[in-house]
Amino acid sequence: MASIRKRRVTWINELGATQSAEKYQADYYDRTGKRHRRMFELKKDARRWLDEQTAGLVTGQWADPQAGRESVRAYGERWLARQVLAPSTEATYEIILRNHVFPTFGEMRMDAVNRADVQSLVKEWQLTAAPSTAQARYLVMAIMFRAAVKDRVLPTSPCVDITLPKIPPKSSLVPISTHTVLSLREAIAPRYRLFVTLAAGAGMRRGEILGLTLDRVAVDFATIRVDRQLSRASRTGKPVFAMPKTPSSTRTIPVGQVVLDEIRHHLEEFGHHESGLLLTTDVGNFVGTSTIHNAWRIAAKHAGTDATPHDLRHYFASAQIRGGQSIKVLQALLGHKSAVETWDTYGHLMGDEDTRSRAIVDGLLGNDRQQSSAPLSENRGHSMGTVEAL
Fold first, then answer.
1. Is the pTM of this model over 0.85?
2. How does DSSP assign 187-209, residue by residue?
3. Topology given in CATH for the domain delimited by 69-150
4. How far apart are CA 103 and CA 119, in angstroms?
């Protein structure tokens, strides 16, 4: 039920004098029976507002006008507290909201944030972060505002038709060289060299390496079992383990002697954490994400490279491909969900496919031409050259 009625409103002004005026009060009840009302100077404004609210109730797009007054920070914290997420994912969401969303929108009302505000924030992120990082931040923010619509806090989300920075296609991935890998391993602090070897020699993800315990290394079988990772929810002195990134990430990786020797050398020189974790700091704590990030940043600067820890995983994949491994085997080694994902990421490195493509065309169109015996380049088959073993 909705109605508009004229009312005389009386108030005391700043000078202490009594004033009064006629205004129009619009009333309606939502689906729960809660009454909502608002005062207007003009009847036509009251009618317009009332039509908007009742139309929203009919179409299912109605949002509580009072709820929209809540700050973005208050709603965001309340929203995150009730999400069912993996510990590492929850920690990532919390960091993104606290460090990248709340500083700009935190004190604004939920219903005050518009599309232009969101686009401006994404533009700011683009100036200081990688495209993939900016997209990840936007995704969390968009999920939060989408939830606000479902919670009837907002009628619509401001995260619509936002232009995001473009991520370079995966086909442009160029693996780092063995020289770069070895330079990084030499430049990083000695107690973290095992991190480089495990990433480049076993293709493990950062969280999987930080969460690797001694009981997951089978020296007799030359394998490493990956069935968990270190959670970002871990705190000093208390490591927390989480499931791997995806169910397919649980795997057993065959490793070479160079990896096993590095593990043995590391244990002889630095020992391990009381929890069994292989990597420890110089004061005996387990190694968290920020610690390895700082160590890597220093090493990369000394090595003169902008490579990231994930580039070591790409290096492992490219080395396997150059050694003749199939995409299906590589999928299992990397713990990808499907061979399609592996192919989309690394298929362009399959040099044999390039050679076969050239041979087909040469066989059809090259019969009547004299073929030069001198190749155009010694490295014609692949732009990255020979990937040496670690």
1. no
2. HS-GGGHHHHHHHHHH---HHHH
3. DNA polymerase; domain 1 (1.10.150)
4. 15
